[in-house]
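Hi all, long-time lurker, first post. I run a small reading group and we've been trying to get comfortable going from sequence to structure in the token notation. Rather than ask abstract questions, I figured I'd post a concrete chain and ask someone more experienced to write out its structure so we can walk through it together at our next meeting. Sequence below, copied exactly:
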Amino acid sequence: MKEPATNPNRRKFDDDFKQHALKMIENGQSVRSVAQGLGVSENLLHKWKQSRHANRSDLETEKADLRARLRQVEVERDS
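-- Answer (accepted) --
Happy to help. Here is the structure in token form:
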């Protein structure tokens, strides 16, 4: 089976870099100015924002599930 092609020039960004970029946007800087200042594409910043919101949504769902499970266990314990 053929391995997927990878781009050797593709840059990798660590989580700290991504969080810093997103914090700049949250603090009122435009996506365009952050992209230009950090040397990344605007599209990439938008993808990071979407991913961050999806992760938060997943965490909120998990938190609600855990709270419901805790209530169930407390009821079972108390009966």
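A couple of things your group might point at:
The radius of gyration is 20 Å.
Residues 53 and 59 are 10 Å apart (CA to CA).
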